[in-house]
Amino acid sequence: MAQPNNPVSEVDLCAYVDGQLDIARRIEVEDYLARHPDAAAALMADLKSSDAMRLALGDRPAPRADIVERAVQLDRRLAAQRIRRLMPRLSFAALATLCLWLAQDEIGEALVSTSQAAVPPFANEAIQTHNTARLRDTMTSQVKTTVIDATAIREATRIVFPRPSDDWRIMDTRLVPSDDGTGLEISLQTGLGVPLTFFAVPTRSSAPSLPDAIELSGASVAYWRKGNIGYALAGSITPVELDRLAEDFADNPID
């Protein structure tokens, strides 16, 4: 906007605060304030004092809509000027760092959500069955079945599964409910005495064809899928250790 022929004076600023200017002069004053941030800050302080006095006297008329709108526009113009003054001082690297810092929380949450969403439900169920199996181990009243009838299990549930390694002990076998239907739970103990829980269930959930071990809910679980059967091996050991055991187990012959 061109400079006004009649320069803005202190009288104009006081009249602006009191709402005594006509529209044309208000526009000229607002343009002046947009180009002089110090004067605008002083005027805002005067407005605050004026509002405080009205509040103390109980005189609180509703502000006119056009004045509110102009105040918003003025604030935006002042903010834009502050940004333009700041930008030349920022190097490209500093600006990139600022953008990354602002976005890192959102990116991190998105990555975590995507990673968790990729874990099939039967992997979570394997963790639950493992925790339940460890609880049953402490209860002498629980009857355990240490013999696996692979044929009967296949005919009843359509579940086929790898044969446990020769040096692994079968501690218990049972059918358990699952979100995908009836699942198979086998409590195992490795040759080194490590308790593990194997879980298998017919499923449509996506999973890798080879075991993938992760830490989940305070334990480790390795999960994979062959055909329409999802498999998981859970234990209270590191994912690296469990991954090695699961790969050996997955390579065993299918019963």
**How do the strands of the widest beta sheet line up side by side?**
1-2-3-6-5-4
Strand content: 15-25%
Largest sheet: 6 strands, antiparallel
CATH homology superfamily of the largest domain? MucB/RseB, C-terminal domain
Q: What is the β-strand count?
A: 6
Q: Encode the helix/strand succession as letters.
A: HHHHHHHEEEEEEH
Class from secondary-structure proportions: alpha+beta
CATH topology of the largest domain: Phosphorylase Kinase, domain 1
Count of runs of 4 or more consecutive helical residues: 8
Radius of gyration computed on alpha carbons: 36 Å
Protein name: Anti-sigma factor
Task: Describe the protein's architecture and organization.
This protein is of the alpha+beta class. Helix content is 51%, strand content 18%. The protein has a six-stranded antiparallel beta sheet with strand order 1-2-3-6-5-4, sandwiched between helices. About 5% of the residues have low confidence. This is Anti-sigma factor.
Overview in brief:
51% of the residues lie in helices and 18% in strands. With 255 residues, the chain is of the alpha+beta class. A six-stranded antiparallel beta sheet has the order 1-2-3-6-5-4, sandwiched between helices.
Keywords, please?
single chain; 255 residues; Phosphorylase Kinase, domain 1; 2 domains; six-stranded antiparallel beta sheet; 8 helices
Give the arrangement of secondary structure elements.
Layout: H1 10-18, H2 23-35, H3 37-57, H4 65-86, H5 92-118, H6 121-137, H7 150-157, E1 169-178, E2 181-189, E3 195-202, E4 212-216, E5 219-226, E6 229-235, H8 239-250
